[in-house]
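Supplementary notes for students who missed Thursday's class. We covered one full example, reproduced here. Read the sequence, then the structure, then the short commentary at the end.
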Amino acid sequence: MSRRRAVLQILLLSVGFVVLVAISVASVVLVNKARDDNAKVVHTVEVESQLANLLLEIRRAESATRAYLLTSAPSYLAEYQQAAAGIPAALDHLARITTDNPAQVANGARLKAAVDKRLAEFALGIERVQNNDAATSIALLRNSPSTDAMETIERIGRDMRAEEDRQFAMRRATADQTQVLASSVTIAGSCMVLALAAFSLVLLRRSSRVRDEAAAQLRDINITLETTVDERTADLREANEEIQRFAYIVSHDLRSPLVNIMGFTSELEELRGDIFKRIATLNRSASLAPAMPDDATDTAEPTLEGADKQLSDDFTESLGFIKSSIAKMDRLISAILNLTREGRREFKPERIDVHELIDGIVKTVAHQATEANATIAVGAMPDLVSDRLALEQIFSNLIDNALKYLRDGVPGEISIGGRIKLGFAIFEVTDNGRGIDPKDHQRIFDLFRRAGTQDKPGQGIGLAHVRALVRRLGGTMSVASELNSGSTFTITLPMKWTGKNRDKAA
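Structure (token representation):
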């Protein structure tokens, strides 16, 4: 449902965008067309106005000529000259603005010829007056009130005005249609935009209602989830504490039978001397050999031969295996007890000078480093807020491992550095020792699991304990290593550990 609503909203927005673009393009096109149509209408009015002015100037020239012929007054001559001087320019302007209409071009050529002819008649009459032949000019004026040229001019003027009237009506109708179309497009587009806006509001209200319902459901789910998480966390904490108590009880209870086994093993070792001394005595009696002197010490090893000697050696070897297994089991039980005690310890955050803390650890292993022909370099370290004892255990274990697993015949080089990144302190402990096979990178962090050649003492607890401490401090731990290429252990810890994150982790 929500997917369909989202698709519908996207489609609606797309349609609205297309409509707006279409309206904008149509409006621009129609506005430009209306501008062109109005320009053509204005052009028609300009042509008619120019034609009327031209005819008026011709009439003015004609009137001034007649007045001058009758009166010979210089003022009428000046008026004629002024009118006649503007007529050619008016004709040229009229020809230029009618070049878009072939009919008007033809009419303009005819008009120019008629006007030139009429102006020539005016000029001839004036010339006769100036030559003192006014009578002839007046007679011509009386006998010929209207020449053919003037009639031609008026007829051509009527034709040109009729053509412009036709163009004006057609262009005005086109302009009106364009404006009506533009208005229609604008109104239709506005209606579509309003309809889309109304539909969008409906969808928005529906989406808002659905979102509010989803938010309410999410709040309910969060409340339920928080309660569930708290319950699960309490269960996990209780289970973890129960496991720690169980491990402590089991480890503690295992010590009692282990102590008994150690005691009975010691008694067996003491009885071994008596048993094989009697066997040696019985052998001598049977072979008529001289008995052992009475003043021989009880601890003297009896002289045995053959099967008896083999039996004695097997007995001694078995006791050695038993004692070795008891010692290993004792170390494992002690390690488990230490882990359970550490798991119950409450961490206390405090500001720590990490450089000073690691320097102290390095000083405690200085003799061990000298014997291993190794050097330990401590670089710059960021201070942080954390648990001091946990940090001491972390770095002590890593430095001890680095010294323990150096390559034979190669001077050891161990470096410890730190830096800050995004509110976390990153520490790296690097060595040039044996290295760790990449397939064992996870194995070394498992409890009681070890990797590589087992020629060094240990129970496989150290790194598992270190990672548990790092997690309790709210950090992470990783290793980068290759065989015979050394190892780099990277520890990331928060700069300001509050004592809450992961403090209850195992």
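Commentary. The beta strands are 350-352, 374-378, 384-386, 412-421, 424-431, 476-481, 487-494. Residues 148-286 form the longest helix (139 residues). If anything here is unclear, bring it to office hours.
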